[in-house]
Amino acid sequence: MSNKKIIIMTASVGHGHNKVALATKESLLKENKNLDIKVVDFVKVIESLFDQLILNAYFKIIDTFPSWYHYIYSITSKMSKDGKVKDLFAHRYKKKILNIIEDFKPDAIIFTNPFILTIVGYLKKIGKINIYTAAIITDYSAHNIWLNPYINKYFVASKELRKELINKGIFEEKIIVSGIPIHKKFYDECNIDQIISKLDIEKKLPTLLVMGGGLGVGAIEEVLDNINLIKESLQIIVVTGTNKALKEKLENKLDKYRHKIRVLGFVDNIHELMHCSDLLISKSGGVTVTEAITKKLPMLIVDPIPGQELENADYLTKAGLGILINDIREVRDKVQELLFENNTVYKEIKSKLNDINIINSNEIIAKTILNDTKTYKRTSVI
């Protein structure tokens, strides 16, 4: 399979889809360094002002009107796996996507976002292409937009999600419980003494990791203000990601906090930060949840967005691997309870995390796709 070509189709709506795409590309090349892999970002494919306005409105609704987003999410979750609404969406973009496929001539197409999956599924439906396709679902539940009878393989995070897809009409032989692929660094051992020295933090103090970028400026300040009410000694690592305004604002008021706080911007060592932390305070994106589980780090999920994040939080809490709070004002009491007053709950979560047998999702997905494409009977583009 030395000359095989693969397209990985993602979309920059949040960082999770792109992270999974890059992790998948890396794992495929590890299995076969001669593969020709192209990553396509659907957001960059969109060129018209109208489409960009729709995308911007989507982000605005999530940030400002989460209840509206929940309503849209609930309504669209009732779509059938081969319905007219999906076909109408796919029809709008089919020419652009078909041109990409015709130019590159891939032997397989992999999806880490469902929007572009809908378009390629439609192209298979109307007989324009017959190429092996695989979907990597990046959350712990599946919106119906992921469902498509023309997808050859589904890779899912859990047995529960596999059962959900079967109940929604996806043939069970198409579904592999692989977990969500993440960067290989999360599977590696870390030297905690080196990390602590590099971060200039105390080894014996309880450490909170606050993943800040997605929570927004006001929310992070409120989280820190609540934690500041805790009298027991602890230390906090805040990661603001690409949110430069948040980083600058927090750095300018560090002297107002009683606890030691390290404010970091965009970093590439989240695996190390998780390794030396005792509790993660964050939203519940599918990739973040998977990274925390892999590093055996209990999560305190704060005010998740209705939809995928809330369903991820529901999975995590039902499994006993984290705690959900819907009001930021509860952060102080919950941290106090978990780490200081009565840490029985914390120990139970930690025990369940330690009992999980971590599988290398990247390897499972890469080997399955490469084996499947050896036997898939492909016809050329019509």
TrEMBL record:
It comes from the Bacteria. Belongs to the glycosyltransferase 28 family. The lineage of its organism: Bacteria, Bacillati, Bacillota, Clostridia, Peptostreptococcales. Gene3D superfamilies: Glycogen Phosphorylase B. Residues 207-348 form the Glycosyl transferase family 28 C-terminal domain. This is Monogalactosyldiacylglycerol synthase. Keywords: Glycosyltransferase, Transferase. Signal peptide: none annotated. It is found in: Membrane. GO terms for molecular function: hexosyltransferase activity. GO terms for biological process: glycolipid biosynthetic process.
